[in-house]
Amino acid sequence: MTKNVDALIIGGGPAGLAAAISLKKNGIDNILIVEREDCLGGILLQCIHNGFGLHRFKEELTGPEYAEKYIEMLEGTTIETMTNTCAIEIVNEENSKTVYLMSEKSGLIEAKTKVVILAMGCRERNRGNIAIPGTRPAGVMTAGLAQKLVNRYGYMPGKEVVILGSGDIGLIMARRMTWEGAKVKAVVELQPYPGGLNRNIAQCLNDYNIPLYLSHTITAIRGNSRITEVDIAPINEYKEPKKEDTFTLKCDSLLLSVGLLPENELSQLAGVNLDRVTGGPLIDTNYMTNISGVFACGNVLHVHDLVDWVSEESEAAGKAAADYIRNQTIQKNKIAVRVGNLVRYALPTVLEPGKPGILSLRVIAPAENTTLYVKADDEIIYKKGHKKIFPSEMQRIEIKEVPQKAKMIHVYLE
Amino acid sequence: MKKSIICISCPLGCNLSVEHDDKVIISVSGNACKRGPVYAQKEVFSPERVVTSTIKIEGAKIPLLPVRTDKSVSKDKMFEVMKEIFKLKVKAPAKRGDIICQDICKSGANLIATRTLDKI
Asked: What pLDDT digit, counting tens, does each position of B83-94 carry?
């Protein structure tokens, strides 16, 4: 089967949905969303807890509600969606791209498109990524998998739970497992500060007196067919476990909430250059990658903490893609954005002189009473004081106008 | 009396310092917006949370329908509400916003569906 579209969006989660709707609003009609699961909505469908949409819809929604509001926006439009369909290769040709799709229903599909929007999201780091020693019993899984089992299929992964990593999914699952009758014995975090949002520490751990061990790690997993216990040790300043203070907790499951990685195998195969820090594509101010006509937005670009920002970013990417389809708009003048003191990354890595710009950034470690600066050479173009700033909170800042003659943009905390 | 609480009204999660006596809040600081003092008032004297879970659904493509209370319920009642949720079962179709259980456990909140699931 062959198809011919103006815009092909890979991924039907919040990023892909917002990008599609934005393309449509900006005058593009021939749009195809490709989703490998059997329905649209992405990871939001298993995030049944509330806290989504405060910025976007000015109300507090659960994940499925947030997703459905976007899915409903597709109704009555010309946007086509293909579920149970996986994109397997993007081939870049002059003036167009060919995306090879594999679907249960239609087999191999060759889709020609003017632009591709990468919106594949991210996946969880697992035991292999963090190399915990010990046996390899059942009961060790990522927090997101546990979330899927509990919330979509109705299976409980265990009754006595230890969670490694204090990312938001781990915290949310601590509460969810508690509500479902499990005993969550500990949340163990390597860093001296929590990985997730402050509110989740309050409403997911403190509410249920679940202990949070900061600056601790798991040094052994034991059990033959099923996990039976883990060793937990405090770490010293070199992140080495202190053997003498190690203690053991009995458990029948270990959930890992140890970070997310943008899922970019498909992008890499197509020749998209990735940023070593974010794991996502390097983009210009129009969300375009090094391949002309290939755009990226959402968690495939960098991991977000709020879906509201995913939607906002993806709308901007959709608009930029629409401009590209109509006028072949390409950013010509680029000035590099460099990060300095305490800033882990800032996106995009280039801005355009004489134009406004939006930067998304994260800090390396928590800081207090500090100021975030953006300088164009020696001129301060953005300045904001922060009583507290955390790595778990992505900052999204607007720069009114990037000076015409600037040579370099510098983002740092002081 | 003084109390430190984390505001859960939005993802910012402000650390609030609350000064109060037995009946009223005297002062709140550390809040970034006006929702802080409102949250502090509730959290100190009658803490409440939204409960989100799933119930069994028959005849849909997945076995579970996600649900939530349409407003926050008293923290003391959360597990009672969960126990009631364990018992509930519906038949497809379900529409987002459908009331599954009115005034669940006399909490003053309705339990509503948070996803639309068609009959298959």
From this structure: 999 999 999 999
Q: How many CB pairs under 8 A join A and B?
A: 82
Taking CB atoms and an 8 Å limit, are A62 and B52 in contact across chains? yes
CB contact under 8 A, B96 and A51: no
All structural domains of chain A, each given as residue ranges with its CATH number in brackets, are 2-123+261-327 (3.50.50.60), 126-258 (3.50.50.60), 335-413 (2.60.40)
Tell me the pTM: 0.94
Rounded Cα distance, A126 and A113, in Å:
35
- Options 3.90.45.10, 3.10.530.10, 3.40.50.720, 3.30.1490.20; which CATH number does B52-113 get? 3.10.530.10
- In which order are the strands placed within the sheet that holds B64-69? B89-91, B52-58, B64-69, B111-113, B99-101
**H or E segment to which residue A198 belongs:** helix A198-200
Taking residue A237's Cβ as centre, other Cβ atoms within 10 Å add up to 7
Q: Read off the pLDDT of residues A347-369 as tens digits, 9 standing for 90 and up.
A: 999 999 988 999 999 999 989 89
The Cα A174–Cα A161 span in angstroms is 8
Contact A153 B63 (CB under 8 A): yes
Looking at beta carbons, which residues of chain A come within 8 Å of B10?
A: 54, 199
pLDDT band at A135 (very low <50, low <70, confident <90, very high): confident
